[in-house]
Amino acid sequence: MTTHAKPVEAFDLVIFGGTGDLAMRKLLPALFRRFVDGQITDDSRIIGVAREDQTYANYRERVAEALDKAIHDKECLDKSRDAFLALVGYRPLDATKDDGWNDLETLLGGNDERVRMFYLSTSPKIFVDICQRLRQHNLNGGNSRVVIEKPIGHDLASAKSINDAVGDVFDESQIFRIDHYLGKETVQNLLALRFANALFEPLWNAAHIDHVQITVGETVGVEQRGPYYDNAGALRDMVQNHLLQLLCMVAMEPPASLESDAVRDEKLKVLHTLKPINADNASQMTVRGQYRAGAANGGSAPSYQEDLGGKESTTETFVALKAEVCNWRWAGVPFYLRTGKRLPQRVSEIIIHFRDIPYSIFSAGSGTINANKLVLRLQPDEGVKLWLMAKYPGPGGLRLQSVPLDMSFAEAFGVQQPDAYERLLLDVVRGNLTLFMRRDEVEAAWRWIDPILAAWESGNDTPKSYSAGTWGPSASVALIERDGRTWHDGDE
Ligand code: BG6
Fold this sequence. Notes:
Oligomer: single chain
Distance between the termini: 34 Å
CATH architecture of the largest domain: 2-Layer Sandwich
Structural class: alpha/beta
Number of strands: 17
CATH topology of the largest domain: Dihydrodipicolinate Reductase, domain 2
Number of domains: 2
CATH class of the largest domain: Alpha Beta
Bound molecules: 6-O-phosphono-beta-D-glucopyranose
Helix content: 25-40%
């Protein structure tokens, strides 16, 4: 299999939070893979920045350990590790203090033509400090770009103030707000499926689609991220960004091109057409849950509150909700979203349920005719399944059965699916904003989420408990069954 990867131009990437979990587990391994594929040239530099005082050599050792854990092809690792580590440097720096910034300026300054990227993989509390100091040291001009990770705010007001502060230093065209779900291959494949095939688009509307489901299930609990997560909860952590972005990609009108603003304009319109959920309807349209101890992952899992070290909490670890896109294309087609921690399966899927056939010519003995479903699997085993009715082979009468046309991308293309960060990091170098969120999108998403949070806060109820290892509280099943529908269970 030959690689189609073209090298990107040489760059300097500064990772603030360079010793953190995201840098070590995701960013550096993603860069390593692109380096091995020849996309990152030897004259690029990757500079980790953190408060700890340590030498280049210490930092490189830590990066080498992180690569050992993340890269399973040991032969490739042994062959390329040293060459990659030669690109990696380190600077101790406290974003809130003056020391060290002159040194960073000397290291990076002087050549505004070179692509300079600042990845803020830190708490959003210090985004403003970092941006202001970058400006003081003239590092925000020319080909500079800033990458910011979620959470972008805790609500609309805080998101606006982060956007204002970052926007004060960088132009919107220099700001890359990452939602790593947009870098997942299947999400980009949704663009290919919808807009490179004539088959689906004529059916992509309320006349032919009954409803859409988006499930993002995780088997893990909150791990080491308790303090952050307890302050956020599943609605802020997953729905405000990842699930709403997926919904937008399904529901948007065909953009005029793949140019970044063409795509982002269409996504924004979807966010603007979402029917508000507030104190009047939150109890019918949403369900929130929190996991209690239960049998999970082949063993037993503690409760959320035990995971927090015994802290009492009313933070939700599960959300199911019914969203409605109020426009001509989607009127009357509900979008059911659900996500949670400690569910039975790690699975992310978008399911398009088509309408029933208008009239059956088959006898009752032929069996039930299930409506067609298109299942886009984001993870694991990325692929697309189209469930169709077919005749069961052989004699015995005309018996119908639902069977999938099943395309696993790994099997179809014989290549491993790249991690989302590989694509997104190189898009930052290329200056391609299509798969990044624009300011107005992030704020429109908060504008829809805030009234749900307010409704939950003002209500008397707390999250319903669910046993770890199950698909959330029974109220989530009731949410969809009230409408005469069921959650897709993966095998039919
Ligand atoms: C992150 C959330 O954005 O996405 C995490 O903060 C979540 O809580 C993660 O676990 C899920 O990402 P993925 O790619 O593993 O599905």
